[in-house]
Amino acid sequence: MLWKRLYGDNIWAQCSEELEGLNKDFRKMLGEHAEFKTLNLKDILTASDGTKKLEDGLVIETVLIPCERGRNTVCISSQVGCAMNCRFCYTGR
């Protein structure tokens, strides 16, 4: 339910008061302990195979990997310089 209230139906909540449908006490707790920030995209790097690396320059790096079957895979690292060392991703190298 929280995911749906944060991102579903193009809501993109900016504060806990915008999370309609959630328990009042839960919304209050979120307002006290969670930050609602929007990412500011700094750069998009596109590889020859259509893979795109999106980064904000500070907090996260995201890789969008297109699939021939018409779907996408998204890898979101929790930090710039993720150490998972996935074969398809340059971040860990």
From TrEMBL:
The keyword Ion transport does not apply. This is Radical SAM core domain-containing protein. GO terms for molecular function: 4 iron, 4 sulfur cluster binding. Coiled coil: none annotated. Its cofactor is [4Fe-4S] cluster. It comes from Solanum lycopersicum. InterPro entries: Aldolase_TIM, Methyltransferase_A. Keywords: 4Fe-4S, Iron, Iron-sulfur, Metal-binding.
